[in-house]
Queue: 2 jobs
Job 1
Amino acid sequence: MPGSSFPIGKLFGISIRLHFSWFFVFALVTWALTTQYFPALYPNWNLATSITTGVITSLLFFASVLAHEMMHSVVAQRSGIPVKSITLFIFGGVSQISREPDGPKVELRIALAGPLASIVLGGIFWAIWLTLPVTFEGIIAVTFWLGWINLLLGVFNLIPGFPLDGGRVLRSLLWWRTGNLRQATKAASNIGRGVGFLFIFGGVWLIFGGFWINGIWIAFIGWFLQNAAAGSYQQLAIQEMLKDHTASEIIDRNCLLLPPDTTVEKLVNEHILPTGQHCFIVAEDGHPRGFVSLQNIKTVPHKLWPGKLVREVMTPLDKLSWVRPDVNLAQVMNTLSQHDLSQLPVVEDGNIVGMISRDNLLAFINTRGKLGI
Ligand SMILES: [Zn+2]
């Protein structure tokens, strides 16, 4: 998912983020509840009551989506797989689980946890709805709708199209049977694309039938599913390919050693702009002290460059994320994306021997992709 999301808090050590497309759905759900659902049930409600109840219901709806993702994430963390964040966006939620599970049983547990949470929540809302006396009309309308939407969320996610939870369940079962993650992913991803195309087809059919809002929505979901299914297989194939190569293959060893009292202005004007070089090590008496990246330089306002020294802007060696030359490139890619870095120093025996940039890694992947190897 492209950027444009921001953090809203932390739960169980997992950062919760909102994507901007979330606001669109929030508004849409609130609008549909306020103008259609509540007035149909309670024509005597005034607009303020409808809007307030609509907003509260929408918030509870997103809390339900969050609970679904939280269950995936908590089970993943319990299985030793770190979860970076949960992002709520236009189609619901997505957990950024840092890596593929180690085995099919773990994947099955993680995949089932979410839909199970939704179905249980749905049951709880309906239990409240059934036991409340009819005089609690607001709460009755809200709990009925939330029960229904949570059950729908649980069942929809169990559709066996990867990367939906049901697709993950399918993949884990195939993986269990064949012992081959790549083959299992390929099969599950193909079925996922098929499900995506069915949604697109169904959506277009509805559009021609005159139900164009629902039709566009369903076709849109199908398009998203189809893309995600194709993307997740590609991603796995890339990871597998990268596992066979080490960091040493793409190190840029032309790093420049800088004295600590070099000014940022001098660095930019004499080294970065004329040569396009990106790898700068701040060294004192032959010992590396830190690393300067374009990201470091960007944090200093332009007009302060003449007075700022590289040792003031560098990332010191002990605070630096780095890799050894013999780690595999899949790990390098994970480190880059986990810390959101564009470059990564390679360190051997306490010395920085070079640098790996995201661009180099992408070029490596692209070239191999084009050659089909
Ligand atoms: Zn899920």
Job 2
Amino acid sequence: MDLTTSYVFDAAHRIAGHPGKCAWLHGHTYHLEVTVSSPTLNALGMVMDFDDLRDAVRKAVLDLWDHSTLLAADDPLGPAISAVQREAPDRVVLLPGQPTAEVLTREAWTRIEPQLPAGIALERVAIRETPSCGSAISRSRT
Ligand SMILES: [Zn+2]
């Protein structure tokens, strides 16, 4: 049986080298959806406690990305933004690729999966940048 939770976080990003407006530093209100599963329910009739799942996702992703600037590790803007944001250096997150919805989805998967309790499988992670544009990864296609 599956269990799904959803989250909202705000972050800035840009796609360095993009030929259009995505190259400009801008922000999104991202929507993250996480689905986990278990073949059995626990003694309380749950796949897992919603609060425990929310806590795992918060620690794995939201605490790091919410109200951050998400950049590729080699983005030349990284040092400049870090310099003007000295009071919160951890709010500039450098990623191993451009901070597209696809890369963020893959990163979220990589960060969430090890946080799950034994016996709980990560089934799907989806991130929407806008109400109409997003990316998703499912366990069968990782
Ligand atoms: Zn964008």
